[in-house]
Amino acid sequence: MKKGFVKIFIVFAMITVIFSLSSCFLLNSYLDSSASTDDMGFDKQEGLQISSVDINSSGELIITYTNGSKHNLGCVVGQDGSVNVDIQGNSNDASFAVAKGLRSAVSIQCTHTVYNKYGIPTSAGSAGSGIIYKIDKETNSAFIITNFHVVYNESSLNDNGISDDINVFLYGSEYADMRIPATYVGGSNNYDIAVLRVDNCEYLNSNVFIEPVFADSNKTYAGQSAIAVGNPDGAGISASYGVVSVYSERITLNIGGAVSLRVMRIDTPVNSGNSGGGLYNEKGELIGIVNAKTSDTSLENIGYAIPSNIVKAVADNIIDHCYGTDLERVQRALLNITVGISASNAYLTEDGHVMVKETVFVSEVNKDGIAYGKLKKNDILISAKLNDKEIEITQQYEIIDFLLNARVGDTLYITVERQTTQGVENITVEIPITKDAINEY
């Protein structure tokens, strides 16, 4: 199996890392449904399809096939067998969190048309992971979130570099005849996030498969459980366990050009094919999407994940702007201001975790931006509100990430601490989001 890796560089350290956690291979070698036995030890048959997926009274996941055979995947989804299975996280037993992750996990396979060394068009494949997002049980459809680099190939003959042959596989159904065709909705190399769409998939109507619960990644802390559920080495969905090492830092990737990404660092073992897979806390809540690991052989278990707040904001942005339109890129509002940090201090949270709080101030307001005349130099940013979303600004990156939620016609409310002739005052300014403020990323 041939693996393709793209090198990445940490901004503040000369550490080379492997970016492409998707593993490349000859597609027909993986999708050969004529093989006599699969990796789980039972026979494959041509044309075999799933007829039902159920949870029995013991909480075991049972897959029934069209030939009447059954496959017991074990107790992975809770113990009541109802449609609304409620699996509570347990810090002493990660299996509950893993079960939640498995119910939202998919593996992904892509085929790209590229030139071989003789200049002849040929097929090249890649494997990665993804998570189910926004299931519609009535239409048996769903959006799938993955990494942009899972579906992108710089050498592709397609103008946008995106595969036009994408298939996803649900947990327990990772066989050639059970592939689910997916279409590309949109994505961004600047965020390494892509959104896919699957339609008319009756398997999704099962009570087994669910949308993940998104945690607030701004509250993620060093030492928190970090459980990766993905498709390492393209060999099928599995789980690995570790902790969050650094809750926020920046790395630079080469995805059709150099891009800087904000990520969290983890010591969870991740490998080629884990890209796009979910990263969960001890409650089974999504805290990120795995997208990279180190390549330095002297270092072990240094991986990276895109924080869940960015994942959700980018995915919603893509769906709102790209689904059913000709657009394929993230459309993000830009205030045209420069911000800086005047102070940064560690503090202890009520539950005993150590976090860092920054004092974020406006160092420059561009006269061509929508914030001109609203925000002023030296304003200290306190909070921001947009529709039903509101954040306290305690880190420099938060206001930038928050603008992913802005749409034309919205009004952004920013509360600042400002020095006036009357002294220091808290003032809330209103900034309408106009079409001129939207930029493609």
Task: State the gist of this model.
With 441 residues, this protein is mainly beta. The protein has helices at 27-30, 95-104, 148-151, 308-322, 396-402, and strands at 7-10, 16-18, 23-25, 50-55, 60-65, 70-75, 105-115, 121-136, 141-146, 165-170, 180-188, 193-198, 225-230, 238-254, 258-266, 278-280, 286-294, 303-307, 331-333, 337-348, 354-365, 380-386, 389-392, 411-420, 423-432, 438-440. Helices cover 9% and strands 44% of the residues.
Could you characterize the architecture of this molecule?
The chain is mainly beta and 441 residues long. It has two domains: 1-329, Thrombin, subunit H; 331-440, PDZ domain (Pdz3 Domain), CATH 2.30.42. 9% of the residues lie in helices and 44% in strands. The protein has five helices and 26 strands. The protein has helices at residues 27-30, 95-104, 148-151, 308-322, 396-402; strands at 7-10, 16-18, 23-25, 50-55, 60-65, 70-75, 105-115, 121-136, 141-146, 165-170, 180-188, 193-198, 225-230, 238-254, 258-266, 278-280, 286-294, 303-307, 331-333, 337-348, 354-365, 380-386, 389-392, 411-420, 423-432, 438-440. The strands form six sheets. Strands 1, 2, 13, 14, 15, 16, 17 and 18 form an eight-stranded antiparallel beta sheet that branches. Strands 7-8-9-12-11-10 form a six-stranded antiparallel beta barrel. Strands 23-22-24-25 form a four-stranded antiparallel beta sheet, with helices on one face. The longest helix has 15 residues, at 308-322. It is globular, with a radius of gyration of 23 Å. 41% of the residues are buried.
